[in-house]
Amino acid sequence: MRDLWQIFFNLIGIFFVLYMIGYASFLFLSVTVGSSVLYQSKRRNTLKNELLDDYYIPVSIIVPAHNEGVTIESTIRSLLALDYKLYEIIIVDDGSTDDTAQIVQEVFSMHRIARPIQRKIHCQPEEAVFETGKYKVPMTLIRKKNGGKADALNMGINASKYPYFICMDADSVLQHDSLEKIVRPVLEDDHVVAVGGAVRPCNGAEIQNGHVIHYRMPRHPLACMQVLEYDRSFLAARILFDQFNGSIIISGAFGLFKKSVVIGAGGYDSKTMGEDMELVVKLHAFCRENEMPYRIRYATDAICWTQAPEKLGDLCKQRRRWHIGLFQSMTRHRAMLANPKFGLVGFISYIYFLIYELLSPYIEVFGVLTIFLAFFVDMVNVPFMILFFLIYVVYSSVLSLTAFFARIHTIDLKLTFWDVLKAVGLCALEVSCLRFILAWVRMTALFRYKKKKNSWGRIERKKINFK
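User: That's the sequence. What structure does it adopt?
Assistant: Structure tokens below.
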């Protein structure tokens, strides 16, 4: 019997060694490439500003909102402070039960108008439309029956008048130059159909007229760990995938899309929880199937500041929802897997997200349970396991800190000595504890996932420190 256990644990050990080598290699490559691209981008910015200052494209900014009375005013004010020549703002109130619509109407002096909206893509009907001419750009508020975030975005697309649109969350704010920077890939290549921006937690940041005037690490440890996690994620995989047109996710908090292509692909899918990833994967499939030349890009210096949950329960809700959305997109577009028709998207991007995103929580939780089982049958080398875990923590922490400090340096933020110590200390806690907590949350996310699959998913909001 002991021999059978030995064979079992040897096979499991080989599998996990290969799994960890693959993940460690990918993380090293992506952080190395990401850091290099960030520094190159920083050096090119001056030249790009000179060349592209007089060129722009008209953009519609769509802000779907549901019970966002706490943050909606700050979000809109950040949009009015953008350094850009031609854009419009469309706020879609998706059946809010709080004072979201009332705040927008009163604060921004909006009046009701009779404006029919042509529905090029399906969405719930509008109940009322409001406009204001008080500001430098047109601003529209649409109140509609609740249909979910994807449905609200589709309404915004139908109401928009410009050829490109921005989708962003109602609890986020844009830097003053974010719109200018996210359109640059489109100006450089007219085959670009979508561009993702960089998302950073605004907990601890003080923003004035779209400029970060003071930055410190968040006071709450959970928010601090998410800052590190966000920078590792956005610096790593997204920049690396951008090198071969392999991006299959653009954050719903900040993304630019070509309206005609999105309408052709059918718009956002209101039947999925991950409408942001679903749309990007759908665009890959639509363009490939119709033999359209296309690019999906990532703008490293177009920054959106968003709120990171400061309660573990809220964070778990968020990650559960993300994982369900990932599952829905991956299964719906499973034909991409290793399909030559989709090029490197099918052979690299899809496989990476399948193994190291969708299946990773099951693999990692199974690995932890295997260690306990091996300990129970007295077949584990405890000193070796402790050493292996310490190596994993140090390696992951070094790469996470590399990504974090590269991002801080290239966007010219300053950290205090205490903030640096906090980042170093919490980084180890994030990779050794929070990662496994979230792995368990993601592993259990699919249990009864169809319940309330189209709900917005509420987390506690706090007023954004925007002046």
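The mean pLDDT is 87.
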